[in-house]
Amino acid sequence: MKLKHLQIQTNNIQETATFYQDVLHLSILEKKSNSVTIQVGESVLQFIENLQFNSIYHFAFNIPQNKLQEAIQWVTNKVDLIVIEDATVIANFENWNANAVYFYDNNGNILEFIVRYDLNNAQTEPFSSLSILNISEIGIVNENPLVLANQLITQHGLEFFSKNDNSELFAAVGDDQGLLIMVRPNRNWYPTQIPSTSNTTEIYIENKGTQIELKF
């Protein structure tokens, strides 16, 4: 499953465009007075301005499986990585066979670089913004994560993420390429103490050759 296009909100288009272009060195596809559209590997990230918006999102980017240390060095020259515990910045997801690091964008959104060792995506080039492969996860907040996940599976032919222990509190739909992460409101976004809240989100997915549009 691939997350082809993600549309979320910001209360400051100009600052957001500056962060993603000048700090993360991603390409701006289009900038309007109330929106900015950004190329992120094979995915597109679009921010829509809502001056009253006062919340945050959590989303992740896949990076090559052999580039975690290079990515850490690259990104720490630009932003502060979020400390997991005991000065460690690398999260280990043993069941997912993955490692991740986290940082904030200008909006306070929690961004994540994740390496998934079951994907055959190693690269030889030095790490840069061009090494960011795609948007791999987006957090969706819902009172009933498991119910929502089952609805998406039934309606759109999606599947539970086989590596995840899906529950009424936390459910993941998709695969290593792309995941919808569903959590209950006020569950802290890992690895922070920031409680999750439900925000307007639009996602275009490609799954087994089928295009799917989801709105939350």
TrEMBL record:
It comes from the Bacteria. Residues 2-116 form the VOC domain. InterPro entries: Glyas_Bleomycin-R_OHBP_Dase, Glyas_Fos-R_dOase_dom, VOC_core. Pfam families: Glyoxalase. The lineage of its organism: Bacteria, Pseudomonadati, Bacteroidota, Flavobacteriia, Flavobacteriales. This is Glyoxalase. SUPFAM superfamilies: Glyoxalase/Bleomycin resistance protein/Dihydroxybiphenyl dioxygenase.
